[in-house]
Write a structure and sequence with these properties.
alpha/beta; 325 residues; 14% strand; 10 helices; Rossmann fold; 2 domains
Length: 325
């Protein structure tokens, strides 16, 4: 049976979004699917499907030749490097696959290590459409599916609100006090239980939030455990980050707070069930390359005082109550 290797060496949310491509390939092809994602996120895809093999291979620059040889030994017919940086592109080439699709987010021309051109590459679009175009370029059938994870549902009191406090950088994060205010408004209306999820490196945030809201329950640990707790939530409220992609892929209603980046690209979900807060047309967001949407990548906002994330907790709480299951 022919094999395809999917490479996506990015963040937690990107690993969750990769399940869209996996679902498509499982449904529309009989390919064996190898997946190379960052080591901390592999457990999300383990035992995903008998045809899906999560590769336990290093991917640092010093490991490229050895890992490339390991990929080549598996003899893939296709390789697809999604949102590729130089490491992903090199590994795609070293895999020995005769059909190579290499998607570089800002590029408009075919990557020199690829064998096919991705139409409309470099034009901002829904992330699922972008990943789908990379598979289309290989001539593979099917359409992208909604991201889907599998997890056993934990037993928690109902209703329950799960908060996602973290973000990849501080400018993408709503203030902790705002989360407390919204959570307490939700709690006053529903008499429910509040949980909050944090990840590695967010211990100080966890302690700070616990001090502000002692009655809230902290969730941290393995991704499998976090997924089981997310699966049980009545609703999720959080920043544009990995946990909100996990929640949406588990079928949990979500409310996402977008600041520097545009939901058009990074929110592929039905907005009736997964609404967003986003202040459009702020002049501080800029277009950085042709075909891109305005966004901001600064690590700390001083001049604008983080106004892209200035949402009223009352408004947020009302939406959370409206969409909860």
């Amino acid at each position: 049976m022919a094999r395809i290797t999917l490479i996506k060496l990015r963040a937690l949310g990107d690993t969750v979004l990769l399940t869209s491509s996996i679902q498509r390939l499982l449904e529309a092809t009989d390919l064996e699917i190898d997946v190379l994602v960052p080591a901390p996120f592999r457990e999300l895809l383990e035992n995903y499907d008998p045809r899906v093999q999560v590769l336990d291979l290093p991917y640092g620059y010093r490991d490229l030749l050895r890992t490339g040889r390991a990929l080549a030994r598996r003899k893939p017919a296709y390789v697809c490097a999604l949102h590729a940086q130089s490491r992903s592109a090199i590994l795609a080439w070293l895999s020995g696959a005769r059909m190579r699709s290499i998607h570089v987010h800002s590029a408009t021309k075919k990557h020199f290590l690829a064998t096919c051109h991705i139409p409309e590459q470099g034009i901002a679009k829904n992330i699922l459409l972008r990943d789908g175009a990379a598979l289309d370029a290989l001539g593979l059938p099917g359409k992208q599916k909604m991201p889907q994870l599998h997890a056993e549902k934990a037993l928690v009191p109902e209703p329950s609100l799960m908060l996602g406090l973290g973000a990849s950088r501080s400018t993408k994060a709503w203030g902790l006090l705002h989360f407390v205010q919204a959570a307490r408004l939700w709690q006053a209306r529903t008499k429910g239980t509040v949980f909050f999820i944090t990840g590695p490196g967010e211990e100080d945030m966890r302690a700070a939030f616990q001090a502000l809201m002692p009655e809230a329950h902290a969730i941290h640990g393995s991704l499998s455990y976090c997924a089981s707790m997310l699966q049980a939530a009545s609703v999720f409220l959080g920043n544009d980050s990995g946990p909100r992609h996990m929640a949406a892929s588990l079928g949990v209603p979500t409310v996402t707070l977008f600041g520097p980046e545009n939901p058009t690209e990074w929110h592929p979900y039905d907005r009736a069930k997964h609404p967003v807060f986003f202040l459009a047309d702020l002049p501080c967001r800029m277009v950085h390359s042709s075909g891109d949407l305005p966004w901001c990548g600064i690590p700390l906002c001083v001049r604008e005082q983080h106004r892209c994330m200035q949402f009223d907790p009352k408004d947020v709480a009302e939406v959370v109550i409206k969409v909860m299951r």
